[in-house]
Design brief:
Elements lengths: L21 E4 L6 E5 L7 E10 L5 E10 L2 E8 L8 E8 L2 E7 L10 E8 L9 E5 L2 E3 L2 E5 L14 E4 L11 E10 L9 E4 L2 E4 L12 E3 L19 E3 L6 E2 L10 E6 L3 E3 L4 E3 L4 E5 L7 E10 L6 E8 L12 E2 L2 E2 L7 E7 L2 E6 L2 E4 L11 E7 L6 E6 L5 E5 L6 E8 L2 E5 L60 E7 L5 E4 L7 E6 L7 E4 L3 E7 L7 E2 L4 E6 L2 E4 L3 H4 L4 E7 L7 E10 L3 E5 L15 E4 L3 E5 L10 E4 L16 E4 L4 E5 L7 E5 L7 E6 L4 E3 L6 E6 L4 E7 L6 E4 L8 E6 L8 E4 L8 E2 L27 E4 L8 H4 L4 E7 L6 E7 L8 E3 L2 E10 L7 E4 L12 E2 L13 E4 L2 E4 L4 H4 L4 E11 L7
Parallel strand pairs: 44-47, 46-52
Antiparallel strand pairs: 1-13, 1-18, 2-12, 2-17, 3-8, 3-13, 4-5, 4-12, 5-6, 6-7, 7-11, 8-9, 9-10, 13-16, 14-15, 19-22, 20-21, 21-34, 22-33, 23-30, 23-34, 24-27, 24-33, 25-26, 27-28, 28-29, 30-31, 31-32, 35-43, 36-42, 37-38, 37-43, 38-39, 39-40, 41-42, 44-45, 47-50, 48-51, 49-50, 51-52, ...
């Protein structure tokens, strides 16, 4: 596993303005803040707040102004409004709806924070300008119900009524969740930019020092836990609290979000107290909201209610790929490990008067252990950094007790299984456990969090589960490169004229195109083959020239499309999915040796410098604009300086030395060339001896010769994002290898014969059954016994960090990946933390569907059922810019976009199925997926 040495503290400066606390509202306590407002401007005002949701089973009012049950104003979530739930509503009611805006989109993310702004100005002549709603800085313009107030309408706000924060009225519609930085501006309708700003596509808070609040305005920061309703605007419009306590001020905030229990990923039971308390009546299971990266992590659990004769529970971590099924899941009982459990919860189990350590479907009694009883505070120490990995626990600050070591290297989140016990968790946000303990005030190694007991001196490097402690990944809003520098989606409407489609932050190397409104095939073009060479993803046809589709070139921020009606029909809608490969300015070093092969000849070493390619003086493919270092420092080559010419064998063949873009470092035994645009075919040769070198093809297409395999390939690689495009010619021989250039073991590899019609797209995913494959253009289930990757002995060989090992003629359908004399194309992907995820899950057959952790807010997801037939389901954040995601396309079908009942929500830490359709969430069915990020979870806004 990776070291956390470079991860922590790297993003300290991302938020120029931090919010350090929030107020936790627990629905069961009927919580609210209230005041009697003075008379003020009832026509023009702005309300702003940050909000983190906890539950979705009631009406949650963030702000209200109420005279009585027939006369009120409210901003609220309508979770019971219809089958979707989670809609935001702005209303003014006076016996009937004077104002009623209900969003089409739903807000069902309980992991991170929303910023909500409502700007009202009923003096505007245009009705839609009278009420504006913004979420995370973007205006919401789609409403399922859309009734605007009349011009100059006077709302119930600032009318001498009771105004509430966290409820619709003092007796109704309490919120369940966290609220932070509440601002009310009396007399002015402001844009969201008065309260926040975009930073690398993330909406963050900004300084509010310039705000003018007006007579009835107020600001609630909850910084003073002894005065929860303290107005810090200068107006002293203070609120009185009810159902809230000083211990409800917690560290969870929009600039440092803490882990909680995941209400979207539980088999049953009740989660409360800001999703930190778990109660069950039967055995049930819940998980946490954080996907745990490598590192050392610490959290606490208080045993609130426990009867050793009747109750039992388990706490620890769980593999994210093991889904929470309904009932009797993941627990140890007197009769043994649950037969319905998939059995991958690691931690401590308390059952009767005996403690157990539990792991991977087994439980072992702990012979010597601290007593865990009602009122105990258990500390859980999770080490995913050390080579052995481990879990330890202690009780009430005692010496940590090792449970076990050697957990498998995979993805984990918090896991809890409970039988009639009550547990309250502290991931670092609340050491009082919702007011049950005295605050401890103990922090982690980074000075983060608030723990009940101090970390033992031997474990001070363990960290609280909060976003500021999460790794600042390579692709991140806090780095030079963001997710949309490597992948993004473009949508456009055709007009029948050749034109540029732009909007990307990069020049694409792979474009996947599909008509949304027409029945047409999926097109694939890439810079390795050329803009005019098409493959159809939904068919088995061979490569064909593009005609008048993509006609000019890849652009620095998009592509030029032609007039063909398939790609640019007037009035039709289209989507382009775009990936950055090796780009326009690649660099590569070739290490050169000299061998005796009918005279001295140049040969090339592989990228690991562990083997020499078997042929001499090979023809090289180099990319125009690329910079290539020829390292001839090997002892066999030092007397053979490499030079370049436009004539075969250079000065020995009657030609002259080519020097454009060439740097010679003979003392360092290196010759470097930056290949100019439009240069003719070149040759490499030895300055001192004839007959040693070979030809160099200088290509406008992208990629360069790769010597890692036994077959010479041309690859272009984006090592940052884990994506490469490889072309090669097959031999038909079992065990031939091809270099892919990633330097990481691939998770997905897709191969297509360019030459032969009728050949399937062969698709391999790391989570398929060993030796199995899928057909990308087909609905078929996984196919076993026909491995894409077999060695010379006929054994399935998983791709390595450098090589694909290709099956040959001894394997059925080998020709899909290695047909003798045929040209092949491979798209290869490796997983990159915070940017891409290639995993598997089990469906639950429910509209409250399976939750899948990705560790980021998704931009694009592809799903395929593996145990049965089913289409390849595709969703993205541009065709469906808000939840529910229901604009469906299928990679294997030419059909137009529609809603086929395979809905899901994209969330700040993954995605959740909202349909029981067998294509994505059939009961006990198995699935694989590919996902790419919009924002890494560390910085993601709730969606």
């Amino acid at each position: 596993m990776l070291s956390n040495e470079k991860w922590f503290g790297a993003s300290a400066g991302f938020y120029p303005e931090t919010i350090d606390q929030s107020l936790r509202y627990n629905y069961g306590d009927s919580p609210y803040l209230s005041r009697t407002a003075d008379s003020g401007n009832r026509r023009t005002f702005t309300f702003s707040s940050w909000f983190k949701r906890s539950s979705f089973n009631n009406t949650n009012s963030i702000f209200g102004a109420t005279l009585n049950g027939s006369n009120f104003f409210a901003l609220r979530f309508r979770d019971t409004d219809d089958s979707d739930g989670g809609k935001l509503q702005i209303l003014n009611y006076s016996g009937s709806f004077d104002m009623d805006l209900r969003t089409s989109q739903v807000f069902r993310d309980s992991t991170n924070w929303y910023h909500i702004v409502v700007a009202v100005d009923t003096t505007q002549s245009t009705s839609s300008d009278r009420v504006k709603l913004y979420v995370n800085g973007s205006q919401v313009t789609s409403f399922s119900t859309e009734t605007y107030p009349s011009q100059n309408f006077e709302t119930r706000v600032s009318n001498g009524h009771t105004e509430t924060v966290g409820a619709e009225a003092t007796t109704y519609s309490y919120i369940d969740g966290y609220i932070a930085e509440v601002n009310f501006i009396d007399g002015t309708a402001l844009a969201p930019t008065s309260f926040g700003e975009l930073k690398n596509s993330v909406w963050i808070p900004k300084s509010l020092s310039s705000l003018t609040y007006g007579t009835n305005g107020f600001r609630l920061t909850f910084a003073d836990s002894s005065s929860l309703g303290d107005d810090t605007s200068g107006n002293t419009n203070d609120f009185t609290s009810s159902g809230l306590a000083s211990t409800d001020v917690v560290l969870d905030s929009p600039t440092n979000s803490f882990c909680t229990l995941n209400t979207l990923d539980k088999s049953g039971g009740t989660i409360s107290e800001g999703n930190l308390r778990y109660d069950t009546s039967v055995w049930d299971m819940a998980t946490g909201t954080f996907l745990l990266p490598s590192g050392k992590w610490y959290y606490e659990v208080r045993v609130d209610a426990y009867d050793s004769s009747a109750n039992a529970f388990s706490v620890g971590i769980i593999e994210t790929s093991k889904q929470r099924l309904s009932g009797n899941s993941y627990y140890w009982s007197a009769s043994g490990w649950s037969t319905s459990s998939q059995g991958y919860l690691y931690g401590v189990n308390v059952n009767g008067t005996t403690e157990y350590k539990i792991s991977a479907g087994s439980a072992v009694s702990i012979s010597s252990h601290p007593d865990i009883v009602q009122g105990s505070v258990i500390g859980i120490f999770i080490d995913l950094e050390s080579s052995t990995t481990s879990i330890k626990y202690n009780v009430d600050g005692g010496t940590p007790f090792e449970l076990f070591t050697g957990m498998q290297d995979t993805d984990y989140t918090i896991g809890v299984s409970d039988y009639q016990a009550q547990l309250t968790f502290n991931f670092g946000q609340d050491s009082t456990f919702a007011g049950q303990e005295t605050a401890g005030g103990n922090t982690d190694a980074n000075g983060k969090g608030d723990f009940h007991t101090a970390l033992p001196s031997s474990h001070t490097d363990y960290l609280a589960l909060c976003s500021s402690n999460l790794p600042d990944t390579t692709i991140s809003p806090n780095q030079d490169t963001q997710a949309d520098d490597h992948f993004d989606t473009l949508i456009y409407t055709g007009d029948g004229t050749s034109r540029d489609i732009t909007g990307l932050e990069f020049q694409p190397d792979w474009i996947w195109q599909k008509s949304r409104s027409q029945t047409h095939d999926h097109f694939s073009v890439d810079s390795s083959r050329g803009i005019d060479q098409l493959l159809k993803i939904s068919l088995t046809s061979a490569e064909q020239s593009g005609g008048n589709n993509f006609t000019k070139a890849f652009l620095s921020n998009g592509v030029t499309i032609g007039t063909d009606g398939v790609i640019n029909n007037n009035g039709s809608t289209y989507v382009l999915w775009n990936w950055l490969g090796g780009g326009t300015l690649p660099t590569k070093t070739y290490k050169v040796v000299v061998v005796s092969d009918s005279g001295n000849k140049y040969r090339f070493r592989n990228s690991l410098d562990s083997a020499t390619f078997g042929s001499s003086a090979v023809t090289l493919d180099l990319q125009e604009g690329g910079t290539y270092v020829f390292d001839w420092s090997d002892s066999t080559a030092q007397g053979h300086p490499i030079r370049f010419s436009t004539t075969s064998d250079g000065t020995h063949g009657g030609g002259s030395e080519y020097t454009t873009g060439v740097v010679k470092d003979d003392s360092g035994y290196k010759t470097t060339i930056t290949v100019a645009s439009g240069v003719a075919t070149l040759y490499y040769y030895c300055q001192n001896h004839s007959g040693m070198g070979g030809q160099i093809n200088t290509n406008t297409t992208h990629g360069q010769t790769n010597f890692d395999g036994s077959i010479l390939s041309v690859s272009q690689t984006n090592e940052t994002s884990g994506f490469s495009i490889v072309t090669y010619t097959g031999t038909g021989t079992n065990g031939e290898t091809v270099g892919h250039g990633l330097g990481l073991a691939p998770s997905v590899c897709i191969i297509k014969s360019r030459t032969n019609s009728g050949y399937e797209w062969a698709y391999w995913h790391k989570d398929l059954t060993s030796g199995a494959k899928l057909y990308w253009n087909s609905t078929s289930a996984e196919i076993t016994g026909q491995s894409m990757f077999n060695n010379s002995s006929g054994t399935h060989t998983i791709p390595t960090s450098t090589l694909l090992t290709l099956s040959g003629s001894s394997v059925a359908n080998y020709a899909l990946v290695n047909n003798s004399g045929s040209n092949h194309l491979a798209y290869v992907f490796a997983e990159i933390e915070g940017y891409s995820k290639f995993g598997s899950f089990t469906g639950n057959g429910s509209t409250d569907g399976t939750f899948i952790y990705t560790g980021f807010r998704p931009a694009w997801v592809l799903i395929k059922q593996t145990n049965s037939t089913g289409s390849w389901v595709m969703h993205d954040n541009k065709r469906s810019p808000f939840n529910v995601i229901d604009e469906d396309l299928f990679a294997n079908l030419s059909s137009a976009e529609s809603d086929n009942g395979v809905d899901k929500d994209f969330l700040s830490n993954g995605f959740k199925h909202r349909a029981s359709h067998s294509a994505v969430n059939g009961s006990s069915s198995t699935y694989i997926y590919m996902a790419f990020a919009e924002q890494p979870f560390k910085f993601s806004n709730a969606r």
